[in-house]
Design a protein that fits this description.
Blueprint lengths: L1 H33 L1 E4 L2 H13 L5 H14 L7 H24 L8 H8 L4 E5 L1 E4 L2 E4 L1 H4 L8 E10 L9 E18 L4 E10 L4 E3 L5 E3 L4 E2 L5 E3 L4 E7 L7 E4 L9 H6 L17 H8 L7 E2 L9
Parallel strand pairs: 5-14
Antiparallel strand pairs: 1-2, 2-6, 3-4, 5-6, 5-12, 6-7, 7-10, 7-11, 8-9, 9-13, 12-13
Helix pairs in contact: 3-4, 4-5
């Protein structure tokens, strides 16, 4: 009887040990997928949060209200487009938080859960990733590309933005403009009830962008601009590639190629390639497609509020 009991205990202990090892391996894989969590710079977090708000259809009426509020509070500047935009950028986040909070205190306020949590703002502890997979397209941060033979960190964005002719231009114009950039970080903004993935990019300054006589776009990757507008929604960009131009030292040719499908996600993770596939508006990873429904189509236009002194197309 004692021998049988000892055998059973030994068998139980062995099984428990195997289960613990399996649990440890599972946790390791989960940690690899989650990546690292970092308390990011508040100014950068505000910049990313503002970009999300500016590209969310449900927030647009509040943006209009806020601009009216600014013009009423500062009548001398009501015709100064750039000043109004800068003032809006620096005050809208706090104004929206208080505005929505006051509306929530009213009966039948009509504030949706999405708007409530968006107005509250994201958590300062931000999950950071090395890679991101959306619709079969894999995006890497530049640091990941630097140790790989493939390149997946180049992005292109066509957006409606404010353009000025000079530093003294008080009334810039809105027009569509193309931006070329390199992904430096992948953030997953946590809004408590859902998360939203954004890319922090180094965007090429207009002085580092030319079109040659054959129609190819050339960029100087060392000329970085738009420091106050670094973020973009993961769903908004198109993947591009930069190839060194043998004819012009320091310049790269911009290429767009057919999308490469990545199906073996687990295999990549085993190789140390952290990839996330999103299922947004849950406590898990965000789903880019679902966020598109939240943000709305915005008439097919992406919005950027940053304004440089001189932008030349």
């Amino acid at each position: 009887m004692e021998l049988t009991k000892a055998i059973r205990i030994g068998h139980f202990t062995e099984n428990l040990g195997k289960q613990l090892l399996m649990l440890v391996e599972m946790l390791k894989k989960m940690m690899a997928i989650v990546g690292t969590v970092s308390v990011v710079d508040q100014d950068l977090l505000n910049q990313a949060h503002l970009y999300v708000l500016e590209n969310t259809e449900e927030v647009l009426p509040y943006i209009e209200q806020h601009m009216i509020h600014i013009k009423t509070a500062y009548p001398k500047f009501r015709k100064r487009t750039k000043w109004l935009q800068d003032k809006h950028n620096s005050t809208f986040i706090q104004w929206l938080r208080f505005k929505v909070q006051s509306e929530l205190e009213e009966d039948n306020n009509g504030v949706s859960e999405n708007l409530r949590w968006l107005a509250a703002g994201p958590n300062m502890a931000v999950p950071l990733y090395r890679s991101y997979l959306i619709k079969g397209i894999k995006f890497n941060i530049k640091a990941q590309d630097d140790v790989r033979t493939t390149q997946n960190s180049g992005v292109y964005l066509l957006a409606q933005t404010m353009q000025v002719a000079s530093a003294k231009d008080k009334n810039p114009i809105l027009s569509n403009m193309g931006f070329y950039g390199v992904i430096q970080e992948i953030w997953d903004l946590d809004y408590q009830k859902f998360t939203i993935p954004v890319f922090r990019c180094d965007w090429i300054d207009s002085s580092g962008l030319v079109v040659d006589e054959l129609g190819f776009t050339l960029v100087d990757l060392s000329k970085i601009g738009h420091r106050n507008d670094q973020f973009v929604l993961a769903s908004q960009v198109k993947q591009i590639f930069f190839v060194d131009d043998p004819m012009h030292r320091g310049w790269s040719v911009v290429l767009s190629m057919p999308n490469r499908e990545y199906n073996d996600v687990i295999g990549d993770e085993v190789l140390g390639d952290v990839i996330i596939e999103c299922e947004p508006f849950t406590r898990g990873m965000p789903n880019v497609d679902t966020f598109d429904e939240l943000a709305g189509e915005l008439g097919g236009k992406n919005i950027r509020d940053g304004c440089e002194d001189i932008w030349i197309e």
